[in-house]
Design a protein that fits this description.
Layout lengths: L1 H19 L3 H4 L26 H10 E5 L3 E2 L2 E4 L1 E5 L7 H21 L4 E11 L2 E11 L3 E10 L18 H14 L16 E4 L3 E6 L12 E6 L3 E6 L15 E3 H7 L3 E5 L2 E8 L2 E9 L5 E3 L3 E2 L6 E3 L2 E5 L2 H4 L4 E5 L5 E6 L2
Parallel strand pairs: 3-5
Antiparallel strand pairs: 1-4, 2-3, 5-6, 6-7, 8-9, 9-10, 11-21, 12-19, 13-14, 14-15, 15-16, 16-17, 18-19, 20-21
């Protein structure tokens, strides 16, 4: 009996001690110090690209709401709802809503044109620091079932509409066209033989990592595969810019631009190697080394593993540097294009896959 009383007394004392002990004692490090973060415990508190603080999320939810669509219209069953901006977004909310309404009516008209039985709408919102993209999908049920996709893209700060050419730090359309053409060339069985698709009119969205262009089902191929997407990741794009004074001086009437081969190819991430009478261009990444093209000074023949092509002029050697026509980069090198600005500066873009 005396033993039990002693145990209860010890237990009672322990409970009292725990109750009055400051909580900070339990927060200390193992050495008893009151410093909770040591000098070597620094962490990166930079938020990821798609992170949104609770206040931002609340604001976004406040300026966009769902709008119900009529269940039936002129014999067409309509399912789903559409987004609608509120006045909390700013003065341009009415223009954006009108664009959304125009797209909705266009898709309903398309469903009627093909005598569809029903059309089902859905949407999603992609928000990046410089762009808001509202993707609208319409699944049309007629003789065949297909999905159409549209987008409304605008600046989150001003509400100004943005095109695909406004996304990113440079015009992505020529490079995307080159990538799409190459994909069609390599897999002709998966695409229509001839395509007149304008990328400027396609749905798209952008985030911190990439730009994605979307195509309606059956727009590029007769295969049932849903909406086709073409993603260009920023990490895979290489650029280099040269000024007009870096070109080979010339006085011909055609204003032929001869570009320093080594400077541009190496700036894009390729490896240019001189050899007697010419040069080789390699793709080199770790153990993956491939010969892409080769050429000979003074001979208008540019070689790849698949073809030999003549351009406007043969390679030219000036002071130990080889110059080639500017068309070498979009005709010979893979997935490479160039843009010329109003000041004559030339920016080359290459996409690595």
């Amino acid at each position: 009996m005396r033993h039990n009383i002693k145990e209860k007394l010890v237990f009672f004392i322990l409970v009292i001690c725990i109750a009055i002990t400051p909580i900070s004692i339990f927060a200390n490090g193992q050495n008893g110090s009151t410093d909770t973060i040591g000098s070597n415990d620094v962490t990166d508190d930079t938020p990821p690209c798609d992170w949104q603080c609770p206040e931002e999320t609340a604001i976004e939810d406040g300026w966009m709401i769902r709008r119900e669509l009529p269940a039936r219209q002129m014999g067409l069953n309509i399912v789903g709802d559409m987004p609608m901006l509120t006045s909390e977004f700013g003065t341009s909310y009415t223009l954006i809503n009108q664009r959304i309404n125009d797209i909705t009516n266009e898709l309903i008209s398309e469903a009627r044109r093909v005598r569809a039985r029903s059309i089902t709408f859905s949407y999603e919102r992609i928000i990046s620091p410089d762009m808001v993209s509202i993707l609208i999908r319409a699944s049309v049920s007629s003789v065949i079932y297909r999905t159409l996709v549209r987008s409304v893209n605008f600046c989150p700060h001003t509400g100004a509409f943005l095109t695909i050419r406004d996304a990113g730090d440079f015009d992505i359309v020529p490079l995307a066209s080159r990538i799409l053409e190459e994909r069609m060339r390599r897999s002709p069985e998966n695409f229509y033989a001839a395509s007149s698709v304008s990328l400027d009119s396609q749905a798209f969205f952008a985030n911190c990592y990439s730009i994605t262009i979307l195509f309606d089902e059956f727009q590029l191929s007769s295969m049932v595969s849903g909406v086709f997407s073409l993603e260009l990741r920023y990490d895979n794009i290489r650029t280099v810019t040269i000024s007009p004074d870096q070109l080979l001086p010339n006085d011909n009437i055609y204003n032929l631009m001869m570009v320093p081969l080594g400077y541009v190819t190496e700036g894009l991430g390729y490896a240019a190697r001189r050899r007697p009478g010419g040069a080789n261009i390699f793709f080199a990444s770790g153990s993956d080394i491939r010969l892409l093209a080769w050429l000979y000074q003074g001979i208008n023949e540019y070689h790849t593993q698949d073809m030999t092509m003549s351009l406007e002029a043969p390679p030219h050697n000036r002071d130990g540097r080889i110059y080639v026509p500017i068309t070498f980069f979009n005709h010979i090198l893979p997935l490479t294009i160039y843009n010329i600005d109003a000041f004559g500066n030339i920016t080359f873009l290459a996409y690595f896959v």
